[in-house]
Amino acid sequence: MRATTDAITLPVGSTIVTMQVTAQDGTVKTYTVTVKRASSSLATLSSLSLTEPSVVRINTTSGPGDYNSTAKVSASTNTIRLVPVASDPGATIRVNGAITASGATSAPVTLNADSTFITVQVTASNNTKVKRYVVKITKEPASAVASLSKLSLVEPDAVRVNTTTGPGDYNSTAKVAASVSSIKVVPVATDAGAMITVNGTVTASGATSAPVTLNADSTFITVKVTAANKVTVRTYVVKITKEPASAVATLSKLYLVEPAVTKTNTSSGPGDHNSTASVKSTTNSIKVVAEAADPGATIRVNGAVTASGIASAPVALNTGDNTIRVEVTAANNTTVKTYVITVTKEPAPVQLSAVATLSKLYLVSPAVTKTNVSSGPADHNAVASVSATTKTIKVVAVATDSTATIRINGVITPSGAVSAPVTLNAGDNTINIVTTAQNGTTTSSWAIIVTKAKPPVIAAINNRNGQVDILQKTEPLTTETLPEAITVKQAVSPNGDGINDRFTIEGITAFPENVVRVMNRNGDVVYEAKGYDNLGTAFDGRSSNGTMQQPGTYFYAIEYKKGAEILRKTGYLVLKY
Question: DSSP secondary-structure letter at 261?
């Protein structure tokens, strides 16, 4: 088996080379070889190059060394390195006295301002011969170019106009808006070795300078360029002039949001421009959007600075007129215009009560006990009894809410007041009480059925035959104590079957001087007629104006003249179809 080792550099003289061989079974054998190398008298370089920066070397015949060459570098180069390679690996190389391995890069060699000699000495391995390689490094003259290839103004961008007069070698002017407070410069040197300062501050070529603060009227910016030779200097001076501040203090837009409300312009008012707007009572605040015609103007809404085109802070609204003052100050801080919006907030609507209940309901004149019952024609029903001698009775109804309206048998009666007398006939008499809440919609109804006892039965002696007769004695002969002359049929079903098609009052035709009223559960009179006759003049489910009424319970009040007396009868009827 043949194995190849890495190359071994041998010094001059004897060298012992040891080799160790390990068999597959682990057996180890060591071999020692003594190699003798004869010393060389070769003291030359096979190559010599310059790096960092890389420079071309030119051989010359004259010079202080055995081998001479020259090279040129730029004026900005301060150091350079050499890479020498010996023809004989055993030779010793020194670069400016410092031993340097063959093929390795030397330490940096500092260069003088004009020319520098670098000596590379090669000593043969037998130390009998020495050769010197001398490289003369010459720096090219530093550039005298002190000009700019470009000069721009940015943040904001501004156009420069060249002029022949001014304090610099190169002069120019530029204009900016009155609102501009600073500007920056971007200078680009023609020669990369030149140094640039902007108003005394060093600025890299092509970089943006620090902001230059601008005066109220004009500002000079000096850009100084110093050439690489440190001698040639050129100055570029830019005169920045601010345009006059705008005197425009008007708005291009003014509107209301959150909520969006229409604004109406008016000629009169406390401002230069006046307008009005209205909002609902539920609106507690509103915002203003004001957009200035000139972006340099300052806008204040009720004294608070507000950005142009941006919604203001909410303005709180009270009931009635609210003044919103929008003040616009022009960029010149002199011209001021005011826009005044009078926003009228509607008053909150009155909340009408929906309470339609009674806190008290009782009978007086005479005072009679009333008993509540579960059934009857109204929402709340009660019964009471009076003696056969009771001709009338009165009602006292007290509303829970004083704003409610009370009707007793269709007649409005103040809360807590004693009603007009209600005439009582023998038998059942219905007194209808309807309470309507302040809102005019909510109603509650009470019905008190007052039962009047029949006349008492007495015994009388018939003097003619000595017999005792049983007679029913009536009350004193007045209209109210006469036997009831009319009878009411409570069922009304106008469906065309001929049965109860009309509200029938039997006996009413005997009393042509009559008035009949029909009321709904709200106490509203829906039908009223004089000379009621059950035929041509009769309630058939339609109101007095011909409107068909809804089925349900209704109340009636009948007045009729019997002799010189006026009798009244009240009660309820049921309308069905």
Answer: B
SS3 189: strand
pLDDT tens column, 286-310: 999 999 999 989 999 999 999 999 9
What is the CB-side half-sphere exposure of residue 554 using CA atoms within 13 A?
29
Residue 359 half-sphere exposure, CB side, CA atoms within 13 Å? 9
pLDDT of residue 493: 93
Going by C-alpha positions, the residue among 220, 102, 241, 112 that lies closest to residue 171 is 220
Report whether 493 contacts 501 (CB < 8 A). yes
The terminus-to-terminus CA distance of the chain in angstroms comes to 130
Summarised one tens digit per residue, pLDDT across range 343-352 is 999 998 888 9
Predicted pLDDT of residue 39: 79
Here the tokens at position 442 are: 């909510």
Helix, strand or coil for residue 509?
helix
Position 33 scores a pLDDT of 67
Residues whose CB falls within 8 Å of the CB of residue 524, separated by 6 or more in sequence, listed in order: none
8-state DSSP, 481:
G
State the burial class of residue 161 (Cβ atoms within 10 Å of its Cβ: 0-12, 13-18, 19+): exposed
Q: How many Å separate Cα 207 from the centre of its chain?
A: 42
Q: DSSP secondary structure string, 24-70?
A: TTS-EEEEEEEEEE-------EEEEEEETTTB--EEES-SSSSEEEE
* Closest residue by Cα to residue 490 from 432, 571, 422: 571
DSSP state string for 95-149: ETTEE--TTSPPPPEEPPSSEEEEEEEEE-TTSS-EEEEEEEEEEPPPP----EE
Compute CA 576 distance to the chain's CA centroid, rounded to the nearest angstrom: 59
Query: With DSSP H G I counted as helix, E B as strand and the rest as coil, what are the percentages for the chain, rounded to 5?
Result: 0, 50, 50
- Find the mean pLDDT for residues 239-252: 94
CA count, 13 A, side-chain hemisphere, 168? 21
Q: Is 192 left (phi over 0), alpha (psi -120 to 50) or beta?
A: alpha
Residues linked to residue 141 through DSSP beta bridges, in sequence order: none
Tokens of 118: 């670098």
Instruction: Please list, in sequence order, all residues whose beta carbon lies within 8 angstroms of the beta carbon of residue 56, skipping any fewer than 6 positions away.
Output: 71
Contact between residue 253 and residue 290 where contact means Cβ atoms under 8 Å apart: yes
- Provide the mean pLDDT of the chain: 90
Predicted model pTM = 0.42
Write the pLDDT tens digit of every residue in 411-462.
999 999 999 999 999 999 999 999 999 999 999 999 999 999 987 654 444 4
Residue 477: alpha-carbon gap to chain centroid: 86
Predicted local confidence at residue 61, as pLDDT = 87
Note whether 207 and 197 are within 8 A (CB): no
Q: Which residues contact 54 (CB under 8 A, 6 or more apart)?
A: none
Reduce the secondary structure of 484-520 to three states and give it as a string: CCCEECCEECCCCCCCCCCCCEECHHHCCCEEEEEEC
Residue 556: half-sphere exposure toward Cβ, Cα within 13 Å? 25
Strand partners of residue 339 = 273, 326
DSSP notation for 48-60:
EEEETTTB--EEE
Nearest in space to 343 (alpha carbons), one of 289, 283, 290: 283
CA 355 to CA 444: how far, in whole Å? 9
What is the residue type of 342?
T
